[in-house]
C-alpha cells in the first residue's frame, strides 16, 4: 500500500441479507475493540430500515440517533438514513477523527453500488476501503432461501438466476457475496459439520476466489481480523467511480414490501411466537422484528425473526401507564399485503 493511502482512514463495509446477523456482529465489535477509536455507522433507509424508536441497532447506550455519539469506550456511533457520505465526511472532519470506520448497510443494499460513494471527490483522498465483509446466515443458505434448491445442489443455477434478476432475493445475495473480501458464515451452530462444509462449497461457486471464509456463531469474530482485512485492490476508492449505472440501485425498493404493524398486548409469549411463525410461514415473510407487551410483564418482549426462525427476550421496562401497543416490522417480497398481515396479527391476537 502506498504512503499516501497509509495516511487515509480505513473504511470497512459490512453487508449481508436481512437477518444474517450484521447488527450482532457490529455490537461485538463495539464491545470488544481495545484501545482503538472506531466509528460505527448504521445505514437504515427510511423505506426499509428499522424504526429507531423501538429497535436499537448497535445495542449500546445512546447509539440510536442520527448524529455522532461518543461512547464510553471512546468509540463513535451513529445511524443514517439512505446516504452515509455526509456522516463519513463529518467523521473525517472531527478534530480527532476515528482510526477506522465501519459501515453496516441495510439488508437489501447492493454493495457494488454503495462502493461508488467512496469515489466522491470529498472523501476519495481521505479514506481507503479496507474491505467488504459479507455476513451470511448459514442455515438460510443451507435451506435454499437464496435459491430454489438446497445448498447441496448446484449453485451455478443460482448465480445464473441472480445475474438476470429473476429472483430479487437471489440477486441481492449474489451481489453481496460476489463483492466480499471476507465472508462471515454466521449461525453455524444451527448446522452440523457436514452441513457447514456443504454451505461453504456452495458459497465458493459465487464468491471471489480470494475471499476468506470465517465460521461464526452470534457474530463472535475477533475485531482485529474484521478490521484488518486489508484488501489492497480497494486501496484507491477512486476506482469505484468507474462503476456503471447499470450495476444496480442502492436498494431494491421495488422488489420488497415493508410494513410496521401495531399489535395489542399479548396474553402469552408462546402464543405470540406461534402466531408470528404461522404468519411468516403462510405469507413467506423474510424478516420480522419489533416488540410487544405481554400481560403480567413489566418489560417489553423484543422479537427477531428470519423466515420462521425466531428469537426473543424481555429487553427494557415499560413505564407505568405507558401505551402497551406493540410494533412489528415485517418485510417480504413484492405482493405482500399489509391488510392481510394486520388481520392475521391483530384479529388473531
Automatic annotation (TrEMBL):
Keywords associated with the record: Chaperone, Hydrolase, Nucleotide-binding
Coiled-coil annotated residue ranges, if any: none
Catalytic activity, as annotated: GTP + H2O = GDP + phosphate + H(+)
A GO CC term assigned to this protein in UniProt: cytoplasm
GO molecular function: hydrolase activity; nucleotide binding
A biological process from GO: cobalamin biosynthetic process
CDD domains (alphabetical): CobW-like (cd03112)
Domain CobW C-terminal: 256-349
Its job: Zinc chaperone that directly transfers zinc cofactor to target proteins, thereby activating them. Zinc is transferred from the CXCC motif in the GTPase domain to the zinc binding site in target proteins in a process requiring GTP hydrolysis.
Family of the protein in this entry: Belongs to the SIMIBI class G3E GTPase family. ZNG1 subfamily.
This protein's name: Cobalamin biosynthesis protein CobW
Amino acid at each position: 500500500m502506498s504512503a499516501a493511502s497509509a495516511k487515509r482512514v480505513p473504511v470497512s463495509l459490512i453487508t449481508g441479507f436481512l437477518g444474517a446477523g450484521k447488527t450482532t456482529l457490529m455490537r461485538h465489535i463495539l464491545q470488544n475493540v481495545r484501545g482503538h477509536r472506531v466509528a460505527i455507522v448504521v445505514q437504515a433507509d427510511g423505506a426499509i430500515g428499522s424504526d429507531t424508536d423501538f429497535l436499537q441497532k448497535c445495542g449500546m447506550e445512546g447509539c440510536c440517533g442520527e448524529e455522532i455519539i461518543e461512547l464510553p469506550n471512546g468509540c463513535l456511533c451513529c445511524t443514517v438514513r439512505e446516504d452515509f457520505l455526509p456522516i463519513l465526511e463529518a467523521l473525517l472532519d472531527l478534530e480527532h477523527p476515528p482510526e477506522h470506520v465501519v459501515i453496516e448497510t441495510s439488508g437489501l443494499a447492493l454493495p457494488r453500488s454503495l462502493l461508488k460513494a467512496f469515489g466522491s471527490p470529498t472523501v476519495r483522498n481521505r479514506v481507503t476501503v479496507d474491505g467488504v465483509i459479507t455476513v451470511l446466515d448459514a442455515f438460510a443458505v443451507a435451506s435454499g432461501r437464496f435459491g430454489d434448491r438446497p445448498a447441496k445442489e448446484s449453485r451455478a443455477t443460482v448465480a445464473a438466476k441472480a445475474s438476470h434478476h429473476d429472483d430479487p432475493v437471489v440477486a441481492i445475495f449474489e451481489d453481496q457475496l460476489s463483492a466480499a473480501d471476507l465472508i462471515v458464515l454466521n449461525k453455524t451452530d444451527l448446522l452440523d459439520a457436514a452441513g457447514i462444509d456443504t454451505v461453504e462449497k456452495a458459497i465458493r461457486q459465487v464468491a471471489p476466489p480470494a475471499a476468506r471464509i470465517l465460521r461464526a456463531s452470534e457474530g463472535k469474530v475477533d475485531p482485529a481480523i474484521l478490521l484488518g482485512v486489508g484488501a489492497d485492490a480497494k486501496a484507491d476508492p477512486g476506482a469505484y467511480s468507474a462503476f456503471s449505472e447499470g450495476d444496480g440501485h442502492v436498494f431494491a425498493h421495488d422488489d420488497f414490501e415493508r410494513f410496521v404493524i401495531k399489535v395489542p398486548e399479548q396474553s402469552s409469549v408462546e402464543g405470540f411466537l406461534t402466531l408470528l411463525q404461522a404468519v411468516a410461514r403462510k405469507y413467506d415473510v423474510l424478516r420480522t422484528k419489533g416488540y410487544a407487551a405481554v400481560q403480567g410483564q413489566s418489560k417489553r418482549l423484543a422479537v427477531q425473526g428470519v423466515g420462521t426462525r425466531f428469537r426473543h427476550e424481555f429487553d427494557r421496562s415499560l413505564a407505568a401507564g405507558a401505551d402497551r401497543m406493540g410494533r412489528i416490522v415485517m418485510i417480504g417480497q413484492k405482493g405482500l399485503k399489509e391488510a392481510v398481515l394486520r388481520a392475521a396479527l391483530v384479529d388473531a391476537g
